[in-house]
Write a structure and sequence with these properties.
With 283 residues, the protein is an alpha/beta fold. The chain is built from 13 helices and six strands.
């Protein structure tokens, strides 16, 4: 494909997506028929879904859900009620709004509006193969997991807890030791992520990178069909709250060198060496 042909195709895609985005933007509260959105874009339903997902990075359905979530969040942040937010989001009941927020934030609308006021969070520390670990556990699962060096316990906890300053925190090191043991023995750990739709998409992509493997930021961008979003992907990876479980340590720079890591480049190097050794032992 020549450069001019590529530019022509990109421009054609943009024109079709502009019509589709305009249609969805005006009618998202009606939960529009995606076949009609495809007709607006001049495509078949199958081709529309494929092109839209490649262009926007998410499916049409998830895009409409993100619009609804954003509208509801604005109402709640402005002091509106859950009922008002449900109406603004085009939902039939507060229970559906609850489901929408759980899907996008892992918090209920009331919890999100109050910045997790009244939510019982457990936090604690435990020894692990990479020094000391700190964890934040919500009623729905592991919400944050990171590391600290000697003297850094308070800062590590505050790094996580400032996200939800109105939550109620109870320290329970025993629970964190249990979940740490489960993590490093290969057990299943329920997780409750708080992030935007794009962040969740990136974090899910990280889970596809196997132990002992490394990829680049651009590889993750390509994996989510958004190759131009390398910098946004980097920011989402940097915001990953559940280290090791969601393996952001397996991501290298464009030149395949170790790059900045929230918990320290030396720890990142140790993690990769740990995985490589375990892979060799299992061979």
């Amino acid at each position: 494909m020549t450069q001019n042909t590529a530019f022509t195709k990109t421009n054609k895609d943009y024109q079709m997506m502009a019509r589709a985005l305009g249609f969805l933007g005006e009618r998202w509260q009606e939960r529009p028929d995606y076949k009609r959105a495809a007709r607006e874009a001049g495509m078949s339903a199958h081709h529309f879904h494929k092109v839209f997902t490649r262009w926007a990075g998410i499916s049409p359905k998830k895009y409409v859900g993100a619009l609804a979530h954003s509208a509801a969040r604005e109402i709640l942040d402005a002091g509106g009620t859950v009922e008002e937010a449900s109406f603004e989001a085009g939902l039939s009941s507060p229970s559906r709004l609850h489901d929408l927020f759980i899907r996008h934030e892992a918090l209920s609308p009331g919890e999100a509006k109050s910045r997790a006021a009244g939510v019982e969070m457990i936090w604690g520390v435990a020894s692990c193969p990479f020094g000391q670990a700190v964890a934040l556990i919500s009623p729905r699962g592991l919400s944050a997991y990171g590391f600290f060096d000697e003297g850094g316990e308070k800062a590590a906890f505050e790094d996580f807890s400032r996200r939800y300053p109105k939550a109620s925190y109870t320290r329970n090191d025993e629970d964190v030791r249990g979940i740490t043991s489960n993590i490093f023995s290969g057990g299943i750990v329920p997780i409750a992520l708080y992030g935007t739709d794009f962040q969740l998409q990136v974090w899910k992509a990280l889970l596809s990178v196997g132990s002992g493997q490394t990829v680049r930021y651009m590889d993750i961008a390509n994996h989510i069909n958004n190759p131009k979003a390398v910098r946004a992907v980097g920011a989402a990876i940097g915001a990953n709250p559940i280290s090791w479980v969601i393996p952001c340590h397996r991501i290298l720079g464009a030149d395949r060198r170790l790059t900045g890591y929230h918990w320290g480049v030396e720890r990142k190097r140790a993690m990769l060496a740990f995985e490589a050794a375990n892979r060799d032992n299992a061979a």
